[in-house]
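User: Continuing from earlier, I have the next pair ready.

Assistant: Great, send them over.

User: Here they are, in order.

Assistant: Folding the first of the pair now:
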Amino acid sequence: MAGLTLAYWLDRHGFTVTVVERDETLRMGGQAIDVRGAAVQVLDRMGILESVAALRTATRGMSVVDGDGHELMRDTTSTLSGGVIDSPDIEVLRDDLVHVLYAKIDGARYLFDDTITGLTEHGDSVSVSFSRHGTEAFDLVIGADGLHSAVRRLAFGTEPTFTRRLGTFLAICTAPNLLDLYYWQVWYRDEARDTIAGLLSVRGNSEARALLGFTDPTLTVDYRDTEAQLTVLDQRFGSQGWVVPEILAAMRSAPDFYFDEATQIRMERWSSGRVGLVGDAAYCCSPVGGQGTSVALIGAYILAGELAAASTEGHVDHRRGFAEFEQRLRPHVLDCQSLAFDAATTRRPAPQEGFDTIINSLALTDYS
């Protein structure tokens, strides 16, 4: 989300943009995400608000069940995923938003199935080495490559230097709508094992997103080792009730299986010379708070705008642009991270009103 949004606005401001994507195509999968507060304004200014709103999950509410599937409670005012049909926020599938953003960009050049392997700054440019494309010079390099950012590693140092582990692990995949849910989601919590399982109907109830989550502050699992991740899930959830066995089976066969620890990225600065970071690569708040997409969209908009504002006659004062970007966004990011960290450590739901106050307090400059 951060990368494509940044590409759109940089192109709009007159920059020549190259987007590098490790996957062979747009990366699909992921959970339902929420666009809130000032991030909704970003979509509006891009001219895609109506298109994104038309794809919202339209969830009516949620139920909580026991291991036998008996309903314990239901709620039509809020859900664990964050969205309900009458909310001012927009809950939409991650890959649906990616497609809308991608279709909106006209002028960017794309390098799919490639990744950056080296960065060397030469004063007035950065020499970028690619795994497949050779080497090329750019004025600026912006890492929008997520929690496990390669750009951050090359320009700033190894990942553990900047991570703040929250001890919560999440697994997500596309699954059949096993319960024939109708714009609904169902959750099962095993208090003794401190685990949670969920099923959310999506895309007009034609499919679902399945989620498994658990807490273990001492566990480490390589985010690249899918088989090790599935083994951990089998060990944690293999004897549980409800439709957990079917969810485990779906995760083993899903093409979009995702597993990772909820982790924050905390950095003293988001730029080094001509290399900057945005989105999760710079300031991942973690999925616990549900603000990652909104802060990514907002950050990309502000970064592009500040770089444009710092440009004269084809020359960009990147130091000024990066500094203004940080000054505007960092206080809001730190507040979001603090709320998410408190929620994770106390194991209580994140206070949505607190996040809403933070996101809604962001006043977006008109950089046009």
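And the other member of the pair:
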Amino acid sequence: MGKTIIQQARGHGSMTYQVRKKAYIYRIGYPRNLTGIGEVARLFNSSAHSTPMAEIRWQGKKFYIPAFKGMYEGQEINFNEKTIIEGNILKLKDIPINTNIYCIESRPNDGGVFVRTSGNNAVVNRVVGEKIEILMPSKKGKEFNENCRAVIGVIAGAGRLDKPFVKAGSKFFKMKARNKFWPRTSAVKFNAIDHPFGSGRGKRIKSKIAKRNAPPGAKVGLIRPKRTGRKR
């Protein structure tokens, strides 16, 4: 009898596999057409994010960004001057080379999607025509549109990975808050219902090549190539 394997169950969603919605009420992003000056209204912790969060008030509105190292409540945040002060949100073309930045937009006005985890930062590397090359935390260069915006500074919360969890229960609740699949277990140790490689009486490991017409949840192991043979 066919069974729903664990990948399909998690993708479908149920009382067992569901996102903790309350943790995700704060969405990171900048409003369009930021001008003038904003203010840091409060600093707080969000269980869905690895870094302290900052609520910024601007023209009667509010938005959220990762806090930078040294940020304090009541601090002014500038959006349109070319003054290079930590916390200012500027376009990449207005930021000098070798400046630390984070929360970088992928496209102009998308709100900021790159470099948002605790303790991280990128560096403005060089100007390439109308593109700005950024040295990412992975030490690889990536080009961005010069009108993409970013926050000047280094994200707060450095050292997070240095702190041990000490016990499995602490890590369980930390992963649960972020809706992460933990602990990760070897596939052949699963029950047959939970994974295509599960059970395998006597631990005989089955073929790891997924069938070409397997549903998305069952495409695990080695995925068959779209084509084979020499390309002519």
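Worth noting for the second one:
Residues 12 and 18 are 9 Å apart (CA to CA). The chain has two domains: 1-18+179-232, 21-160.
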